[in-house]
Give the backbone structure.
Amino acid sequence: MVITQDCDLLSDYRIRSEPAFDNSKPNLLQHIFFCEIYEEPEIRVRIAPDIWRRVRQNQDERYHCFPEAAVENSPDRLPLLFLDFKRILSFSTEGLYLGIQEGSIRRIGFLPLSYLVDFSHRFFSFHSRVFLPD
């Protein structure tokens, strides 16, 4: 799941779409951040049973659970999906644009605003923790 902010993605796209595109502009995104997505059987085996209830109810700060949802332009549905906020990764922006152009990367859905605000707040709250020794 893409976790780079929409406004940053839009700004980057607009700059890259300019006729006189210059890839040395300082506000270009070099990488786009993602969080790995898991279905219930994949993640449940990694979480202690006493924590699992909190994870399913979005009461554990490390994890986020999304309910089942429709797939864009398809009769299929997505199952319950879980994100582990410690499992983030990045891909080069140029590589992602190339994958989108080639069709090897595609969007299967988007978060409605009601989910996006809560998810974004929870993700960035988890990553903005203050370091404390020991």
In short: The CA atoms of residues 95 and 101 lie 10 Å apart. The chain has a mean pLDDT of 89.
